[in-house]
Design a protein that fits this description.
The chain is mainly beta. It contains two helices and 46 strands.
């Protein structure tokens, strides 16, 4: 239970009866102005003797008539060995402990999880409100609705009647800074400024009325909430799991960014939870249940508000989520060179072949050991035995080589999405210098020629050149496949590219 210090101005009286050094109660001559502390409240009094200079701080936890229940020898003070005699002076004084608790707890409170209201059935809640489950897990409401009839179980995202909760673990601690009416902070290093706010877990910070922050997050603004390494700034902004939201945004779900009025909002506006997405602007929502990243290229499926009534419609988010996408493969080489060189300085991303062809090409990873940046690295003095399993690595001096099979490049769309091609082709890197053209095909897993049967390029002429084809069959799929049918000659490094539409679907 939290502790709230009560302060009184200029109170003084004397002891009616003598008390021993171990007594836990005392009778006061006058209790005018004092009130019985509540269950989480106390106040301090100081007994003193002007003649001897002795003093003792006592903490009062209850008052009944003229009798106070007390804790003795507080804040390092001790009274006389034999106790205090009748008539000893007693008064309210500001103590170091009281002031120190204000620094640690703002208004003098030390909150615990019991300060968060317990879950109740059929309770109407607004987004961002917190409730405590019977197992002391904290739940943050993600939308405005009514709870169900049975307390929800589980972790992560949990449905409860019309409410979707984010379930969080938190623990009580006195290492906090708390200021605001009915504010509750619970956990090491938490801080909160604002009425009815919550700061829970480790190093969470909330600023603003009803703001909620959890686990090393920052929530700032009226009804803003942020969880797990997230930042939410602005009224009704919400951010989850290493994401950022601002200005009436709500819920950039896992590593996302939402900025703008109601961008990414799923608090009753029909938007789906989306991962790794960026949404900017008014009434822009994440349409996909999961967004897609293809070879580092994000595919964003936006749904912009403006249904017939001017508001987005819950049931139409998936139906209208269609985005144009350009998807490219990992680096690949469609030629026969360059071949590996000993003691050679390689740039990151260089695509080469072994001196003895094995049907595979290899992409260099050139990053100094432990560094977070790329710079040229030097190969070994002896050619390594090449690993021929696609996706595997080969160590070569300071260079790491990734094995790529150019005859079988397979890409998978994310769940709840499908890809329909409008064009397919190949884009060369700067090192391209073909002397004869390769033959390539495009399709889907199990049918590598569905979209384009083996066709020779004619336009790969040098650095950054490209050649695109119109598909002969444009039926969509969840899988995308590109393949080298016949290699060209000379260095032809680059990427297979798929251009088309991504549609959200109701099935995986």
């Amino acid at each position: 239970m939290s502790i709230q210090y009560i302060f009184y101005n200029n109170f003084s009286t004397t002891l009616t009866n003598a008390i021993s050094s171990s007594a836990t109660s005392a009778v006061l001559d006058d209790v005018t102005g004092l009130s019985d502390p509540g269950t989480d409240e106390v106040f301090n009094l100081t007994l003193f003797d002007d003649t001897t200079g002795e003093n003792e701080v006592i903490t009062v936890s209850s008052l009944s008539g003229s009798t106070v229940t007390i804790a003795r020898n507080q804040e390092g003070t001790t009274g006389p060995v034999g106790g205090w005699s009748a008539g000893a002076k007693i008064e309210t004084r500001t103590t170091a402990g009281m002031m120190g608790n204000m620094v640690a707890g703002g208004r003098g409170r030390r909150s615990t999880l019991s300060d968060i209201a317990s879950w109740q059935a059929s309770e109407y809640l607004e987004a961002g409100q917190c409730r405590r489950r019977s197992d002391n897990y904290v739940m943050v409401a993600q939308n405005e609705e009514v709870t169900g009839s049975t307390e929800p179980t589980g972790t992560g995202l949990v449905d409860d009647g019309g409410i979707t909760w984010v379930i969080l673990s938190a623990s009580g601690s006195s290492e906090m800074l708390e200021a605001g009416n009915e504010a509750v902070s619970s956990g090491t290093g938490t801080s909160i400024f604002g009425d009815w706010g919550r700061a829970l877990g480790y190093a969470a910070s909330s600023f603003g009325g009803w703001a909620v922050s959890v686990s090393s997050s920052l929530a700032g603004g009226h009804r803003a909430f942020a969880t797990r390494l997230a930042v939410a700034l602005g009224a009704n902004a919400g951010a989850d799991d290493q994401s950022f939201s601002g200005g009436f945004s709500a819920r950039s779900w896992e590593d996302g960014i939402s900025i703008g009025p109601y961008a990414g909002n799923n608090w009753g506006r029909g938007a789906r939870r989306s991962r790794h997405m960026m949404m900017f602007g008014a009434n822009t929502y994440g349409g996909a249940a999961f967004s897609i990243s293809m070879a580092g290229h994000p595919v964003v499926l936006p749904f912009v508000g403006g249904y017939t009534s001017g508001e987005s419609h819950d049931d139409d988010t998936a139906l209208q989520s269609t985005g144009k996408a350009l998807i490219y493969s990992v680096p690949v080489n469609l030629g026969d060179g360059p071949v590996w060189l000993a003691d050679h300085s390689y740039e990151h991303g260089t695509v080469i072949f072994p001196t003895v062809a094995n049907g595979k090409c290899y992409v260099s990873k050139c990053r100094p050991n432990g560094a977070k940046y790329f710079e040229p690295e030097t190969s070994g003095s002896t050619e390594p035995p090449w690993n021929t399993t696609a996706g595997s690595t080969t160590s070569d001096g300071a260079v790491t080589w990734y094995c790529i099979d150019p005859t079988d490049i397979l890409l998978n769309m994310g769940d709840y999405s499908r890809f329909t091609p409008t064009s397919v082709g190949f884009v060369c890197d700067e090192g391209a210098a073909p002397t004869s053209q390769p033959t390539i095909s495009f399709g889907i897993n199990g049918n590598a020629t569905k979209w384009l049967a083996g066709t020779a390029t004619t336009k790969l002429s040098g650095p950054l050149s490209n050649h695109f084809f119109e598909p002969t069959n444009n039926e969509g799929s969840k899988t995308l496949q590109a393949a080298l049918v016949t290699a060209g000659t000379g260095p032809i490094p680059g990427r297979f590219v798929f251009e088309g539409l991504v549609l959200e679907t109701p099935t995986l």
